[in-house]
Design brief:
Layout (H helix, E strand, L loop, with lengths): L9 H25 L6 E5 L5 H10 L4 E6 L2 H13 L5 E5 L12 E7 L8 H9 L2 E13 L10 H21 L8 H7 L3 E10 L2 E3 H21 L10 H9 L6 E3 L2 E8 L4 H6 L1
Parallel strand pairs: 1-2, 1-4, 2-3, 4-5
Antiparallel strand pairs: 5-9, 6-9, 7-8
The protein binds S-adenosylmethionine.
The site of S-adenosylmethionine has 23 residues, from helix 1, helix 2 and strand 2.
């Protein structure tokens, strides 16, 4: 169900780690709201370099449990090594498609994915499959990106202009392969997958970050997408001057900051509750 287009390389795993440092506060807020509390069980979807796994492991503590899935063996190895080095004893990793999640007793308390639903060709089917691994009353939560929202013209014009120009070149290839503007669709994806959105747990949020921290998310993300546009013939190899891009971002004013493309945070409940279940 996924035709994940990004490379499986150490460089890409390094990028995910740098990106994670910027995204962490938003994901933490989402996880807490969705119920990742001490003792809870969390299913982490598409773990990459393991950052969401470790964040969840911290929140649920030693009495909780985190099971992380990824199809990429290299990513799982990096995530596993980092988790061990950090001393987490409540983390396990499985090489598995997120559309085929494992079962855990009566179901996980929370399933969470970051920057992963946007890569699925049929997000409704994937969310429906994930919901079956979550207990009634538990939560399904995603932190995704809305690539075309959030950069502010007036925040830092030089870097913004370069970002917008480059994104325009990459856009046709992204739109073909990625749910590039998933934000406004997330509530209906959840509803179509059978989740209960009565609590309306959705938010579009643009982190305001220091310029130095923005480079990993802005320029690195576009660099990651570059091979797709070259493969499609949309741009030529070497056409984008990445050194110039990074220079503009690095030469930001002291304490320069800008808004990044927006994050969409969304969570919804699996219908029913433990009580309902027992009464049935
Ligand atoms: C952009 S990375 C995000 C990693 C991590 N969630 C984070 O935010 O740091 C997406 C990850 O999802 C994995 N992935 C994508 N589609 C998948 C699928 N259908 N099943 C399992 N893993 C998948 C990729 O291998 C990659 O590791």
């Amino acid at each position: 169900m996924s035709d994940y287009p990004l490379e499986s390389t150490e460089r890409e795993r390094d990028r995910l780690e740098r990106q994670a440092r910027v995204l962490r506060p938003l994901t933490e807020r989402l996880l807490r709201r969705a119920g990742a509390e001490p003792g809870a069980s969390v299913l982490d979807l598409g773990t990459g370099a393991g950052d969401v796994a470790m964040l969840a492991a911290e929140l649920v503590g030693p009495t909780g449990r985190v099971v992380s899935l990824d199809r990429d063996a290299g990513n799982l190895q990096r995530a596993h090594e980092r988790g061990e080095r950090a001393g987490y004893t409540n983390l396990s990793f499985l090489e598995r498609d997120i559309a085929d999640p494992p079962r855990l007793g009566e179901g996980f308390d929370v399933a969470v994915g970051r920057y992963v639903l946007m890569y699925q060709t049929d997000p409704v089917a994937v969310v429906r499959a994930i919901a079956r691994a979550v207990r009634p009353g538990g939560a399904v939560a995603f932190h995704e990106i809305s690539l075309y929202e959030g950069m502010r013209d007036d925040a830092w014009p030089a870097s913004t202009r370069l970002f917008v120009e480059t994104m325009a070149k990459l856009s046709p290839s992204l739109r073909r392969r990625i749910q590039a503007n998933i934000a406004p669709r997330l509530p209906s994806i959840f509803v179509d997958a059978g989740l209960d959105v009565a609590d309306w747990g959705f938010e579009l949020s643009s982190p305001l970050v220091h310029a130095a921290d923005a480079i990993p998310v802005g320029v690195d993300l576009m660099r990651t997408f570059e091979p797709l546009a070259i493969a499609d013939g949309a741009i030529a190899a070497g056409e984008i001057d990445w050194d110039a891009q990074e220079r503009v971002w690095r030469e930001s004013p002291p304490h320069g900051a800008l808004t990044l493309p927006a994050s969409v945070l969304g969570w919804a409940r699996v219908p029913g509750s433990k009580g309902d279940d027992r009464d049935a």
